[in-house]
Amino acid sequence: MSFLLELRENFKKIYNKYDVYINPCAKFLLALVSFLLINRSIGYMNRLNNPIFTVLFAVLCAFVPSGFAIFLLSVYMLLHLYAISAEFALIVLGIVILMYLLYFRFASKQGYLLVLTAILCWMHMPYVIPVAVGLAVGVSAAIPVGFGVVIYYIIQTASAYESAITNQSVSDSMQKISYIIESLANNKAMLIVLAAVVCTVIVVYFVRRLRIDYAWTYAIVAGTAVQFLIVLIGEILFSAHLNVILLTIGALLGAGVGYLCQVLFFSVDYKRTEYVQYEDDEYYYYVKAVPKINIANEDVKVKQINARKTRKATDINEVAGTTQEHTAEEYEDTRTYHKDEF
């Protein structure tokens, strides 16, 4: 615990000093990875596959708000989908518009969660993020996290759809639209993962808001259990072909990330809880005060303000000895002077 607290304080110092550089670099890397993954999964428009465009778009995303970065990524994805089929791009456009209506209404500053969730889904580890999001962000974060899952499975569906068009098993426009809608609506894996991450964020948020001791710890345990059970039961009932081993690893990693969030944002000492009672003219107040856990600042530096140099002890002794000799000589001269007067 002390090591993590020291790490937290050091990170705060570094971040407060270099946040002007850290934020754009993090946004650039997140956007660059997103553009590269889109190119790799559905890179059907050859002009957009140029690495120069990818880097330029990522640099642009580094210096704009997260909402505009999500808009740019959405347009980039829609252009690739349009290269496959106009019908597919039109359906996805409707989903994106719905996403924006909910996003800008409830979670306008949490666009990075959508991108991060989609990246984790590509890594087959979407179970890592919901517990931490429910602890550190709030219930509104369920919207970008849920749409991150949807966007990932849309990209996965696009690959299967392109193969169906190539094999001419789907040719008519109505057949194309029906194929797309049925592929998304009947995607059991998407529905299970979507339900798991959204329910986990909601459960974690409401449990950590309870007025009980160790509420964040209970929230981590409850969120991990809910996520694991939803995915496991969904796999048993619907045979969605989800990897149970990756589920277990992801749930454990998610609990670990949740614990790190607890240390970073809510490290308190319940053993030193105090209860305070006071009143004013209208109310009685019963207050429960839980102290935070902080580390002592051991880097204490003593700086000498006096500009004069400190003399050595030998120099001081010599000065003292010289002063005493002068005082004795003056005393003898005074005695001689008074003796001559008499």
Ranges where pLDDT stays below 50 over 5 or more residues in a row are 336-342
Note the total helix count.
12
Described by the principal axes of the CA atoms, the overall outline is globular
Strand order of the largest sheet: 1-2
Characterize the largest beta sheet: strand count, sense, and whether it forms a barrel. 2 strands, antiparallel
DSSP strand (E) fraction? under 5%
Estimate the helix proportion, in percent. over 70%
Number of folding domains?
A: 1
Radius of gyration: 34 Å
Can you write the helix and strand succession as a string? HHHHHHHHHHHEEH
Structural class: mainly alpha
Mean pLDDT: 83
Distance linking N and C termini: 87 Å
- Would you report the number of β strands? 2
Name some characteristics of this structure:
mainly alpha; disordered C terminus; 2 strands; 342 residues; globular; single chain
Task: Describe the structure in your own words.
The chain is mainly alpha-helical. It has one domain (18-268). It is built from 12 helices and 2 strands. The protein has helices at residues 2-42, 51-62, 66-84, 86-106, 111-122, 130-136, 142-166, 173-185, 188-208, 215-238, 244-265, 313-341, and strands spanning 274-279, 284-289. A two-stranded antiparallel sheet has the order 1-2. A hairpin with a 4-residue loop joins strand 1 and strand 2. Helix 1 packs across helix 5 and helix 4 (86-106) runs antiparallel to helix 7 (142-166). The longest helix has 41 residues, at 2-42. It is globular and about 75 Å long. The protein starts with a helix and ends with a helix.
